[in-house]
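Minimal example, chain plus manganese (II) ion.
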Amino acid sequence: MSTAPGYQSPTVTVAAGLPKRGVGSAVLIVPVVSGDDDAARVVPTPFLDAAAVDEIEAALSALGAKGGADQTTRVVAQSLPVASVLAVGLGKPRDSWPADVIRRASGVAARSLSGTESVVTTLSEIDTEAAVEGLILGAYRFTDFRSDKTAPKDAALSRITALATAKDAKAKAARGTDVATAVATARDFVNTPPSHLFPGEFADRAKALGKAAGLEVEVLDEKALEKAGYGGIIGVGKGSSRPPRLVRLIHRGAKQQAKTARKKVALVGKGITFDTGGISIKPALNMHQMTSDMGGAAAVIATVVLAAKQKVAVDVIATVPMAENMPSSTAQRPGDVLTQYGGITVEVLNTDAEGRLILADAIVRACEDDPDYLIETSTLTGAQTVALGSRTPGVMGSDDFRDRVAALSQEVGENGWPMPLPEELKDDLKSTVADLANVSGSRFAGMLVAGVYLREFVAEGVEWAHVDIAGPAYNTGGPWGYTGKGGTGVPVRTMFAVIEDVAARG
Ligand code: BES
Ligand code: MN
Ligand code: ZN
């Protein structure tokens, strides 16, 4: 099972009209809004004539459908060449539809149609890219580790027909497919259990993906890491029989730009394949959720592969530290001192604050490439969920870039929110024996303290952002919108939006 295939995205076709035949078993997805009379009204579309709209609305009315957001109603419409119609509510009518409303409605539709192999959608006339993304992500499932005993009996969604009349609809659908496929790649990594995804295996898979996408790939094994002085990655990884790695994936896209306009974006992602806490061991309750502690690494790898696939005109260099944080007789101890890559010494007061140790090494390495911007993302602190909950990433860093990353994150529906890094918190990281301690002595502002620690390792002149996704990377609640249980793929779409924004505006 180590060559698990993961999720296979459905094939997407764009059509400028309802297929006349051959879709007899397909379900047609139609957006509806709640009208003044509180009844569901089909959003006007060139693909349905007045008679078809009347037929659908009459059927919806008979069932009491209201068109509220996320409400789905399945009806039969005999005049149409499809098996049935799924009405998906968008809420109150609006003049224009934010992309995430369309993405979300598509996701809700896909989840409610589980078991349907072929869908036709008119949501794509409103926003082709968002409709395709939402359908693919809503239909996502991870079945690699189910035997025939519990494997789903029903078929996965395999065909999407996106109805759209715009000239660029095909390109938009292709882009939506690529973006959703990247998010699904990140989800697959997170959903692969720690028994099967350990640093060596993770590095091999990242390398294979990178090679297939035409990226330059470098992998440092434990000997190379030791020799080069990556004390943080070695320190965290040394309690495990499965040694650490540092993976570098490089997309060279800037040469498409004029010399003066060339930009370089560094990505860094936390790749703890399992976090027991180490000697500062975590409580047993919910420890299994620490399979998601490589969510930042998964997102970074998927994003640089997506940047290559989309041929974005920026250099993107991913630097991904991978380690398993285990307690053992070879593990680091609370009180140990290690030397981060670059020379700063750290007193490890708590071995469960391991993310910042591997990230500091990776950030220093990433800055050696002289990037214009650096985005680092990690499931770094439980304090992120205390401050912002399970769906809102905390974005910290240099003021302007932090705000830019958070704004783009809002735009794509991943909803990152800007947070400060108060100067005075640095005093809490003073050590009696080393340059820094890896934790402060208080419970205050845990998310920000981690960001303040990382700031010490970012080179002068590099605009940077730290995105804490402790909650948002992994959905432990019920499914919602286009997000199922387990790995979410956050913040792939935020990072990709930033990279494209840098390509467009510098
Ligand atoms: N991986 C955890 C953070 C985490 C918590 C991620 C919950 C996802 C859900 C991280 O390595 C950790 O253990 N952080 C400690 C830091 C503390 C020791 C300063 C924490 O948050 O308790
Ligand atoms: Mn930890
Ligand atoms: Zn961790």
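The chain has two domains: 11-164, 179-505. The two ends are 43 Å apart (CA to CA).
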